[in-house]
Amino acid sequence: MDSAEFKEQLLEEFKKQVKSDPNASESDIAIRMMSSVIDKSSERTVQGLSLELKETKEILIAATRSDKSLANLNLLSFQAACEIFLVHVNRQFRRFQSSRMEFDKLRTNLQETASNLAYGSLERRDAIEKQALRFMRDGIRVLVHGYSPLIESILITASEEKSLNVTAYVTESRPNNEISHLCESLSKAGIETFMIPDNAIAYIMESIDIVVVDSEAVVENGGIINTVGTLAVAICAKNFSKPFYVVTESFKFARLFPLTQGDLKAYRKDYDQDEDFPKSEEFKLELPTSDYTPPEYITLLFTDLGTLTPSAVSDELIQLFTN
What we know:
alpha/beta
C-alpha cells in the first residue's frame, strides 16, 4: 500500500470512529486508531512498524487540527493520548530488542497491550471518580468551568449513589456550546444547578465551596491547559481561598512546558469557532479556546494514578516517559 492510499484509508476509518461514537474520549479514539494500524500493518521490522505508527500519529493530529468533521476532538488531548500510546509501544519494542523474541510474538504483545489500554479506559475513569468523591460532602456547592463528562458523572454519582445534597454553579464557558447539556443533565439528576455568565465568577466565588475543572492537557510542571477562562477562575479561587481541583486521566499528561499564553496558539485548530460572536469589518475577533493555568493555582489533581499535587506530576511524567 502506497503512502497516499494508507493516508486515505486511515482518515476514512478515523472519521468513521469519531462519527460512530461521538461520546468517546480522545484517549479512546487514539487507542482504537493506533491499535488498528498495528493489527493491519504488513511491516515485519521494529523500525518499519515504529515509523508507520509515528506517521499515523502525525496524519491523525493534522486531521484533528484542520478537519471540521472532527470538531468534537480536542487537539491537545488527542495528541497527548497518541504520544502516551507510543510510550507503551516503545516499551514493547525495547523488550523485543533485548530478547530473542519472534516478530509475530512482538505483534501479539502489542495487540495485548493495546487491548489492555482500551479495556482499562473505564477503570481509569472509575479511579478518578473515587479520588474526587472523597472530597465531596453533603451540602457542597461546586463551581464547574467547561464541559466535562467526567465531572458530570462525579456530581451525579455524589448525588444519586452517595445521597449527597450537591449544588452546581456552571459557568457559561464561552465559546463552548455544550454547557447547556451539562446543566440539563445535572438538573435531571436532581442536582440544583445554576448557569452563570463568565463575568460573574468573582461575584459567585464567595458562595461556593470548591472549584472543579477537567483539563485538555497536564503539562510538565503540573499546570493545566483547559477551556479558556480556567486561569481567571483559578486566580479568583485562590484570592477567595477556595480549593481548585482538577480531574484528569494520565493519558492527558503531555510533554509540554508553555511559558506564556501565546505558546498555545500552536495548538489551536485551523478553522474558526466564532459563529456566535458579532462580526464587523471595523474590528477583528480574538477568540482563544484554551488557556494555561500555572501549578501555583491548583490545589490537587485527581487522576487514575492517584491524588497528586502539581509538583508530583513532574515525577509521574519522568516515570512515564523514561521507564
